[in-house]
Each structure stands twice: as structure tokens, then as C-alpha cells.
């Protein structure tokens, strides 16, 4: 039998992108975006006090000197972009990490600079660590304009938190959620991880119930993934601990679905459940966005590119040079595929949204029939009024691409090329 890599990968690629060519990201500086209208902004804070061994994100141990260099470079990067983003409407500012609050005075300075530079009046969304969430810090964030927060609870079980190397306990996490809900943000999301070593169905039921009991607007649950480039993936120590099997994982998802429904939450994305009338917290589903900081990605509709992951190399490059490590051109068909990928993630494909973005003459059916029909036949997709609803999908292109460039960029500040 042909291995999936040789047979299925090019076939799915052809159905999604319309061509057989491999994706190639190369170390070329793309043009500055000059025709963006609606755009999301992102900045990455690549520092943490405790480096959790399971974490695949780009982060280094916090250091005062490196943070100061990072902050100066971030301002320089904003100044470089400003002339090209003057006409834009900004739909959101998302702050991810690492741990964005690792230096709170530094973060509020950066936030103020973003608001002033780009005259922001949009939602400001941020990822928080439970240990940084005393009432004063939360109020400071709210005063600084933060409207939506996402808290890394991960588990409400002390034994499991210890197993995975987190530096907080159940009480710290749940108290933090309670304070966050009381502070009055537009939306509070709690992140939980499942399929963790040593986690039983009963443990998981308690995790979901405990988080819902604090009154969060949204619950996001992620099965533990072990990217090859995370410390966990590298050491593979996790393989010595018994991890739950496929059937167990499916049961955990069923538990999440039924407990969420019981409390009036509905599923709003592959891994998320939302209270009715609450506003969805989401990091990655904007159509066009510009990312600032080490490892931040940007999608302009003409190019997809990613900054160097190395914090010192990022700081040293600016202001003389843009810190872009790898880029690739994006044609309209690929842009459509990218849009489709995130709609699949959000479980809904709307014909009217597609036509509004790509022109009235374009329809999802006409562009992607060879992809959508087999998915429909396989029961993964359902046609409904005005578009499609996804039951579950294997659309994985951007994730795969992210995996590949993340692997290369983690090893080298300025990698030569990545192809997929
Ligand atoms: C950048 S972190 C959250 C913010 C903050 N640094 C913290 O840890 O509380 C984003 C989220 O990704 C999820 N995550 C991290 N590593 C993961 C892994 N290996 N598998 C599944 N989810 C993971 C966790 O739920 C985590 O809260
Ligand atoms: S999970 Fe959060 S705190 Fe832990 S290393 Fe990753 S970004 Fe840092």
C-alpha cells in the first residue's frame, strides 16, 4: 500500500489549492502590505517564568535585558508598518505568548503604544496565566483597554497539574477565573487540556464542571499534542507515562459536549463551547492579519510570512531590517483555501461571506466542489441553507505548514527554506 504521504497528501493539496506544486517558504522579504482594508493585529510576547515541558509555542525564560531589547524592537517594527496600515480598519488586537503579563508594566506600555500608533477602537484579546491574575492586575488590564481574556487553566486537578509540570494549583486557577469574571471583561475563556497522562473520565468531568461553575463565557479544550519540536516531543518522556487511547478521548469529548449543553453552552468551534449571547474569543480566524514580535505570522492576501523565532536575532535585525524569516506568495485560490480552512475550524461555511470577500461571481460550491463533495459523501459536511455545516473535518493544511516552519524556525534564526 502507498504511504499516505506519497498518495493522499498531494491529492488533498490538489483538491484544496488547485495545483500539485509543493508549498515552499523561502527567506525572501515580502512587499509591505499596501492594499489591506480590514485587518487583525497580533503581537507575540515570547517570555515565560516557567517553561512547561509540553508547550510547543515560541517562548524563552524571562530576562529583564532581553525584554528591554524586545520592547525597543517591537516599537521599531510598528513604526516600519505604520505608513502601510494608515487606511486600515482594525478588527482586533490579539496578544499571545508565551505569557504576555510576564512584565505587566512593560505590557501596558506596549499596549498604549499600539493604541496610539494605530488609533485602535477594537477588541483587545489577551492570553493570561492564572498566577498573574490578582484583582489589581486584572483591573489594570481592563483600564488599559483589554476586553477579552483567555486563561490557561489546563486542569483543575492538582495531581495532573503536577504531572504536566505546571507551576500553579487548582485553587489558584479557579480563584483567578472567579476574579476575572467579576472584573467585567466582555468575555472570559478558560483553556483546559485533556487526554493528559493519568487523567480519568471522572477527572475530566470534574475539570469541565469546575470551570463552568465559575461562570466563564467560553470553554476551550485541547487534546494534549506533542509536537516533535516541543521539549516534551524531544525528550519523549511522556511516552513512558500511560496516555489515554482513542476510545477514551472520544468519551472525553462526549462528556464535554453533554456537560456544556446541560449548562446552556453551544459548540462554536472544533474545540470550543460558548454561552448563548456571549462574544466568541478566537485568536486565529481573521482573514488578514499582521503579526509583530518573534515568531509572529502575517497573512496579507498576497503573502504569508513569519518572523524569526529567535528573540535576540529579532531585536538585532530592527530597525534596519524587517525580521521576516520565511515567506511565500499567496494566490487567490490559496487565499480562498485559507479562508475555507478557518471556516471549517469554526464548523460553518457561509456562501454570503465568501461572495463578500472574493466577489459575487465566486461561490464555495464552484471553487471547491471536488473537495466538498467527497467530504459530504463521507458524512463530514452537511449542506444547509446558505452554506455548509461541518460535522468534523480533516482539513489540516495550514496546521501542517505551521508544524513544518515551526520546526525549522526553532532550530535556526534564519532558516534557508521549508517545503511541504
Ligand atoms: C500560550 S498558552 C496560554 C497562556 C499562558 N502562557 C498559560 O500557559 O497559561 C495557550 C494554550 O495552549 C494550550 N496548549 C499548550 N500546549 C499544548 C499542548 N502540548 N497540547 C494541547 N494544548 C496545548 C493550553 O491550553 C494553553 O493554555
Ligand atoms: S503553556 Fe503557557 S506558561 Fe507554559 S510554557 Fe507555554 S506559554 Fe509558557
Summarize the structure.
The chain has helices at residues 4-17, 64-81, 104-118, 135-143, 158-163, 170-183, 201-213, 231-235, 246-262, 311-317, 332-345, 351-358, 364-377, 397-411, and strands spanning 24-25, 38-45, 47-48, 60-61, 89-97, 123-128, 148-154, 187-194, 218-223, 266-269, 272-274, 289-292, 297-299, 303-307, 324-329, 348-350, 381-384, 387-390, 418-419.
Account of the 3D structure:
- Helix content is 40%, strand content 21%.
- 35% of the residues are buried.
- With 420 residues, it is an alpha/beta fold.
- The strands form 5 sheets. It has a 9-stranded mixed beta sheet with strand order 10-11-9-8-7-6-5-2-12, covered by helices on one side. A 3-stranded antiparallel beta sheet has the order 13-14-15, with no helix packed on it. A 3-stranded antiparallel beta sheet has the order 16-18-17.
- It is built from 14 helices and 19 strands.
- Strand 17 and strand 18 form a beta hairpin.
- The model is unreliable at 392-405 (pLDDT under 50).
- The chain is globular.
- The protein has 2 domains: 38-274, Aldolase class I (TIM Barrel), CATH 3.20.20.70; 335-406, Orthogonal Bundle (Arc Repressor Mutant, subunit A).
- Residues 54-57, 97, 99, 127, 129, 152, 154, 191, 193, 222, 224-225 line the site of S-adenosylmethionine (SAM).
Any key phrases for this structure?
single chain; 420 residues; alpha/beta; TIM Barrel; Arc Repressor Mutant, subunit A; 2 domains; three-stranded antiparallel β-sheet; 40% helix; binds iron/sulfur cluster
Amino acid at each position: 500500500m502507498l504511504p499516505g504521504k506519497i498518495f493522499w497528501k498531494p491529492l488533498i493539496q490538489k483538491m484544496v489549492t488547485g495545483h500539485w506544486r509543493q508549498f515552499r517558504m523561502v527567506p525572501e522579504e515580502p512587499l509591505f502590505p499596501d492594499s489591506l482594508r480590514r485587518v487583525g493585529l497580533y503581537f507575540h510576547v515570547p517570555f515565560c517564568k516557567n517553561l512547561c515541558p509540553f508547550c510547543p509555542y515560541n517562548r524563552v525564560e524571562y530576562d529583564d535585558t532581553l525584554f528591554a531589547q524586545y520592547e525597543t524592537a517591537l516599537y521599531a517594527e510598528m513604526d516600519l508598518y505604520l505608513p502601510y496600515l494608515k487606511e486600515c480598519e482594525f478588527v482586533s488586537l490579539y496578544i499571545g505568548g508565551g505569557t504576555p503579563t510576564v512584565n505587566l508594566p512593560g505590557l501596558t506600555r506596549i499596549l498604549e503604544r499600539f493604541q496610539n500608533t494605530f488609533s485602535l477602537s477594537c477588541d483587545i484579546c489577551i492570553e493570561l496565566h492564572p498566577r498573574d491574575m490578582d484583582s489589581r492586575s486584572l483591573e489594570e488590564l481592563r483600564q488599559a483597554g483589554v476586553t477579552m481574556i483567555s486563561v490557561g487553566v489546563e486542569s483543575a486537578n492538582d495531581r495532573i497539574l503536577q504531572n504536566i509540570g505546571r507551576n500553579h494549583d487548582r485553587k489558584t486557577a479557579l480563584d483567578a477565573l472567579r476574579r476575572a469574571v467579576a472584573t467585567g471583561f466582555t468575555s472570559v475563556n478558560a483553556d483546559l487540556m485533556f487526554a493528559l497522562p493519568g487523567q480519568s473520565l471522572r477527572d475530566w468531568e470534574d475539570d469541565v464542571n469546575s470551570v463552568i461553575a465559575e461562570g466563564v463565557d467560553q470553554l476551550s479544550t485541547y487534546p494534549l499534542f506533542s509536537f516533535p519540536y516541543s521539549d516534551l516531543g524531544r525528550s519523549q518522556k511522556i511516552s513512558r507515562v500511560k496516555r489515554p487511547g482513542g476510545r477514551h478521548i472520544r468519551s472525553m469529548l462526549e462528556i464535554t459536549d453533554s456537560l456544556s449543553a446541560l449548562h446552556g453552552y453551544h459548540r462554536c468551534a472544533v474545540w470550543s463551547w460558548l454561552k448563548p449571547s456571549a462574544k466568541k474569543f478566537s485568536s486565529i480566524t481573521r482573514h488578514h492579519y499582521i503579526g509583530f514580535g518573534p515568531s509572529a505570522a502575517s497573512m496579507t492576501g498576497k503573502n504569508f510570512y513569519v518572523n524569526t523565532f529567535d528573540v535576540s536575532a529579532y531585536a538585532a535585525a530592527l530597525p534596519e531590517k524587517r525580521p521576516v524569516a520565511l515567506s511565500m506568495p499567496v494566490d487567490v485560490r490559496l487565499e480562498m483555501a485559507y479562508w475555507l480552512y478557518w471556516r471549517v475550524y469554526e464548523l460553518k461555511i457561509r456562501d454570503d461571506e465568501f461572495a463578500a470577500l472574493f466577489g459575487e461571481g465566486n461561490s464555495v460550491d464552484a471553487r471547491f466542489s471536488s473537495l466538498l463533495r467527497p467530504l459530504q459523501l463521507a458524512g463530514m459536511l452537511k449542506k444547509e441553507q446558505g452554506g455548509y455545516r461541518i460535522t468534523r473535518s480533516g482539513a489540516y493544511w495550514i496546521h501542517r505548514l505551521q508544524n513544518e516552519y515551526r520546526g525549522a524556525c526553532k532550530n535556526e534564526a534564519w532558516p534557508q527554506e521549508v517545503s511541504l
